[in-house]
Amino acid sequence: MTLLVRVARSDPGAPAEFRVETFHPMTVLDVLLAIQREHEPSLGFRFSCRVAMCGTCTIRVDGRSALACQTVLPEDATRLRLDPAAGFPVVRDLITDTTPFWEQWARITPYVVPADDAVGGEPAVIPPDSAEREAIDPALDCIQCGACFSSCGIAGQPRTFLGPAALNRALVLIQDSRDTATRERRELVAGADGVDRCHYIYGCTGSCPKGLDPARSIRRLRKGGRDDG
Amino acid sequence: MIAQLVFLAGFTVVTAVIIAFTGMVAVGARRTDGGTHVGAVLRSRLARRSYDRGEGNRWAFYAHRVSGFAVFAFLALHILDVSAYAWSPGMYDDVHELYSTVPMRVFECGLLAALAFHALNGLRLVAIDVWDVGPVGAARLLDAVAGLTAVLTLGGAVVIMWPALGG
Ligand code: HEM
Ligand code: SF4
Ligand code: FES
Predict the structure, then answer these.
(1) CB contact (8 A) between residue B135 and residue A206
(2) Does the distance separating the beta carbons of A202 and B57 come in below 8 Å?
(3) Do A147 and A79 belong to one domain?
(4) ipTM, 2 dp
(5) Which of A91, A218, B11, B87 is 20 to 30 A from B151, comparing alpha carbons?
(6) Using CB atoms within 10 A of its CB, is residue B12 exposed (0-12), middle (13-18) or buried (19+)?
(7) Residues A109 and A202 in one domain
(8) Which UniProt keywords apply (chain A) (predicted)?
């Protein structure tokens, strides 16, 4: 079957419509590679791992933020529209500058800050069946692809909302008993750029390629974060 | 007569401001948002079942913002035209005759729709926050909000339009 693909180009004069022969299963990344190989070598897009692990290939597929490498075309697809991820400055074609995402991510200190005396002691153990582990696990698999950020109507420049991924990570770390930066994170989360700026759009949960539920993490943070599972 | 013209001028300004605000929301949405392809893509999305229906939550956010602003903008004008009574009851009657004309009655139906949607959707947002209903639950609640808004608006429209249509 032939697929008619429309791709957003930064150069208004550049070709933007391509016909691609499909096979099954075919991913959106396969489509982009076919266009680059057969029609337009200069088409700009990013990818690296091809298996939904690196979070590099985030674009909008028919308007929705998704990983190009994970999105399989429906078998009867005849048209496809590809745009750069929203909420970011466009570098070229489908390549965006994801700095706004990383700036917010860095603000919540996205890693465990251990206590000074933790170094050299016994390794901390959080048993798999503990309440702490059960609270952390469902929010843990973030690959920082920015799909949620791009799909949120509030995150993104010029705004300063922390955004779904950073808040989701904040929840994980606030639950973590080894961490010592909880107070700073809580202040940030409850502050002007934190959970109260969520407007219940659910773009994040609807787009996360890892099946995480950042909106749920935001609701839980609003209720205090720790202990209430 | 002059008072009526002043009211109509104010009404025109309010309408223009509401339209401009709606445009601003749409342009801002286009820039920061993954979900503002109108037309064919929107229709194909709304036709999707279950999980993807969550996309409606996005449109509800914009509708909530626009309806909240529209009601507020009209309320600002309405406070002024009602306060004409303090000035002179004759002037008040003069201005308020306009409210019973057919075009104003049609506008009032629109206002009722905006108010009903904003209030019901506002309660839905509170419910989402308190009970953490999730994207699918929120979409189901939105169906209920849309249905109730339609019923309230249609019912109210009958009452509002009745005298003008010779009932
Ligand atoms: C029963 C009555 C009402 C309820 C339950 C209600 C509820 C809400 C809620 C929950 C929000 C926050 C929305 C969000 O976070 O996205 C909101 C926003 C707002 N409301 Fe209302 N509201 C009501 C009446 C009104 C009235 C009468 C006006 C106008 C005078 C109004 C104007 C606004 C405006 C301008 C916003 C800001 C919208 C935004 O920033 O997106 N509301 N309302
Ligand atoms: S929460 Fe999901 S959508 Fe957001 S950055 Fe992490 S993996 Fe991507
Ligand atoms: S190429 Fe790594 S996530 Fe798609």
Answers:
(1) yes
(2) yes
(3) no
(4) 0.84
(5) B11
(6) exposed
(7) yes
(8) 2Fe-2S, 3Fe-4S, 4Fe-4S, Iron, Iron-sulfur, Metal-binding, Oxidoreductase, Tricarboxylic acid cycle
Q: How far apart are the CA of A180 and the nearest CA of chain B, in angstroms?
A: 28
* B51-90 pLDDT, tens digit each: 455 678 888 999 999 999 999 999 999 999 999 899 889 8
Q: Looking at CA atoms only, how far is residue A122 from chain B in angstroms?
A: 38
What tokens were used for B49? 């079942």
**C-alpha span between A147 and A229 (Å, rounded):** 25
pTM of the model: 0.88
**A18: domain range?**
2-96
As a whole number of angstroms, the distance between CA B96 and CA A106 comes to 58
Counting Cβ atoms within 10 Å, is residue A9 exposed (0-12), middle (13-18) or buried (19+)?
Answer: middle
Q: How many domains does chain A have?
A: 2
Both structure tokens of B138: 């929120």
pLDDT for A66-116, tens place per residue?
A: 999 999 998 888 999 999 998 899 999 999 999 999 999 999 999 999 888
3-state SS class at A31: helix
